[in-house]
Task: structure prediction
Amino acid sequence: FVSRKLSYDYASPFVSLSIMFVFALLPLIPIYAKHVQIRDLFRGGLITGILLFGGFALQTVGLSLTTPQNSSFITAIYVKLVPVVSFIVTRKVPYFVEIVGFVIALVGTWFLTTGGSTNFSLGVGDFLTFGCTICFASHIVALDMVATDTNFAGVSIGQLLWVAVLSIMIFWPLDHVDQGDHNDRGAFLHPNWIFFLCQIHNGTLATGFAFTAIGWCMRHTTTTRTAFICALEPVFAALSSYVYYHETMTRAKLI
Result:
């Protein structure tokens, strides 16, 4: 989150997103290319890639139309929606202890991202951001469904490839729409060493490695456990903001 925000100073959001996923693919291609067939890119990679792209696209546009506080809280809800989406798709009812755990995680996310504030109004950007949470939750469920039945390498490369392709196709029209401070110049790219360091981190580690690791781990654990672990995302986002942006950690956030 911190490095993505910094990269927007040097590239418009969807240009940055396109480059980020290219960087995500680069280290995976030499590792997995010989294990991937063309059909693998479509079997599991296409649907997971579309859902992943939908999440990032709606999050990017939604963030420009709402406050960071609202965006961070609503986006973090996606891990709590995973059991709901899983139930709709598989009809498998979550265990009671899992329901209790997600309620606690939801309350904790509220305190962490809003500081316990009740001054929370909803606008167009918030509804777009909520759409991104549905896409991200659906992506986790879809990844779980295809992880054991398809070529793991094909799904890993395929989903990242489709996000990169869709981002490249769409950045010109969307980055020319007035979306706030970072988009008043339309699509732009002013790369320097800071931008490339951000993209190496965002693409290689936070995207390529992270989503490949999630896909591999989901072959050995449940969707609910994966969602619980992903619920730690706003915790590390808050710690990163504290270290790099010196944001105040209030008592409510520490709780």
User: Anything to note?
Assistant: The chain has a mean pLDDT of 77. The two ends are 22 Å apart (CA to CA).
